[in-house]
């Protein structure tokens, strides 16, 4: 058999750097430019004023070292910006630089109060790699900040799944006994004991809005910073049925999936008119996949447990379940007094108590709180 040797790898054109919907793909662009596989190094730095921080970061990187030149800028104009985008007015929020002396790219993206700096390079170029490692250390030392709790949000692009990292407030130090009724303490112990273990299972947290379900999840994220928590938005619930999602989980073993407002996910199959996701949950938490993937699934919902698929409640699959209710009148009064509200009577939710000083407060104007609420 005759062996055919290729003098140079076949690479695409510039158009191959863009997906079907026009989104730019950094890895594909690198292959187009240099004809080799991209390796990456990423660092995130805090940025109270992104424009000034971009200038400082570029000075720290020193683009002249490897003759970097700008090849792309993305701008958000006054007509496009929203109220929360005022920080990005009048300057570029995304930059791409290409080296003319080595096989390297640098991408800088401005997020709200942070910059994401991504270095793309050829792993065989040891000089570039050494420079990148030194540069990222300089950035981390210069912009060192307190490490905040983080969770990941599931995103889909071109039929493939990935995650975007999101910071959250630190809820590690909350007092479980103050914020929840007495019967929750043993449930918290069971959940806390299960999180570090490499095992699969379901955690069902239900109850009316404002009773502390999301606060408790943020507490777990803050307490177990080394675990990978992945938030799945409601729009992605049906994606759990796709084979590509299983492929995603294979790359995220030992993860903890969070599904808020999960009525459509956990409702009994005989009560659902849609294609049920329950069978997928069963496989992930107690099927052939479970021992290999070690996926835990935390579901929050408002519906009654009577409507939940009974297979999800089986012993061996269920880590814990709990019905969150308003605090007892005694705990309501104690927490309200600690917050400076005297003579608060009755049984109130956490949302009611912490919002007690708001104008026109009453129980009919309660607002749900969760990962999607800001």
Structure description:
- With 374 residues, the chain is an alpha/beta fold.
- It has 12 helices and 12 strands.
- The strands form 2 sheets. The protein has a 7-stranded mixed sheet with strand order 7-6-9-10-11-8-12.
- The longest helix is centred in the middle third of the chain and has 17 residues.
- It is globular and about 70 Å long.
- The termini are far apart.
- The N terminus is likely disordered.
Number of domains: 3
Instruction: Write down the secondary-structure element order.
Output: HEHEEEEHEEHHEHEHEHHHEEHH
Could you name the CATH homologous superfamily of the largest domain?
Answer: P-loop containing nucleotide triphosphate hydrolases
Corresponding CATH architecture of the largest domain: 3-Layer(aba) Sandwich
Number of helices: 12
**Structural class determined from secondary elements:** alpha/beta
Helix fraction by DSSP (H/I, runs of at least 4): 25-40%
Overall mean pLDDT stands at 83
The major beta sheet can be summarized as:
7 strands, mixed
Strand order of the largest sheet: 7-6-9-10-11-8-12
Report strand %: 15-25%
General form: globular
Q: Cα distance, first to last residue? A: 65 Å
CATH class of the largest domain: Alpha Beta
């Amino acid at each position: 058999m005759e062996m055919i040797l290729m003098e140079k790898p076949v690479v695409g054109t510039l158009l191959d750097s863009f997906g079907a919907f026009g989104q730019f793909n950094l890895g594909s662009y690198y292959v187009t430019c240099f004809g080799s596989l991209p390796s990456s190094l990423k660092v995130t730095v805090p940025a109270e004023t992104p424009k000034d921080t971009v200038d400082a970061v570029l000075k720290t990187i020193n683009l002249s070292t490897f003759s970097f030149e700008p090849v792309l800028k993305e701008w958000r104009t006054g007509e496009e910006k929203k109220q929360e985008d005022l920080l990005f007015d009048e300057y570029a929020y995304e930059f791409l630089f290409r080296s003319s002396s080595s096989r390297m790219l640098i991408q800088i993206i401005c997020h709200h109060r942070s910059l994401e700096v991504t270095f793309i390079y050829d792993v065989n170029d040891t000089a570039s790699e050494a420079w990148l490692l030194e540069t990222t250390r300089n950035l981390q030392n210069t912009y060192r900040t307190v490490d905040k709790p983080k969770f990941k949000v599931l995103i889909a692009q071109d039929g493939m799944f990935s995650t975007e990292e999101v910071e959250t407030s630190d809820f590690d130090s909350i007092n479980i006994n103050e914020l929840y009724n007495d019967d929750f303490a043993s449930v918290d112990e069971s959940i806390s004991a299960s999180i570090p273990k490499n095992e699969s299972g379901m955690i069902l947290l239900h109850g009316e809005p404002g009773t502390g379900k999301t606060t408790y999840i943020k507490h777990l994220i803050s307490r177990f910073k080394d675990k990978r928590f992945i938030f799945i938005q409601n729009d992605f619930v049906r994606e759990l049925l796709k084979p590509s999602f299983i492929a995603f989980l294979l790359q995220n073993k030992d993860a903890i999936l969070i599904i808020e407002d999960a009525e459509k996910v956990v409702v009994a199959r005989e009560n659902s008119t849609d294609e049920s996701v329950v069978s997928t949950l069963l496989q992930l938490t107690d099927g052939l996949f479970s021992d290999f993937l070690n996926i835990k699934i935390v579901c929050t919902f408002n519906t009654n447990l009577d409507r939940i698929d009974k297979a999800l409640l089986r012993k061996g699959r269920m880590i814990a379940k709990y019905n969150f209710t308003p605090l007892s009148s005694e705990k309501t009064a104690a927490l309200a007094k600690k917050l400076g509200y005297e003579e608060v009577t009755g049984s109130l939710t956490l949302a009611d108590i912490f919002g007690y000083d708001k104008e026109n407060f009453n129980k009919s104007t309660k607002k749900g709180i969760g990962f999607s609420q800001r």
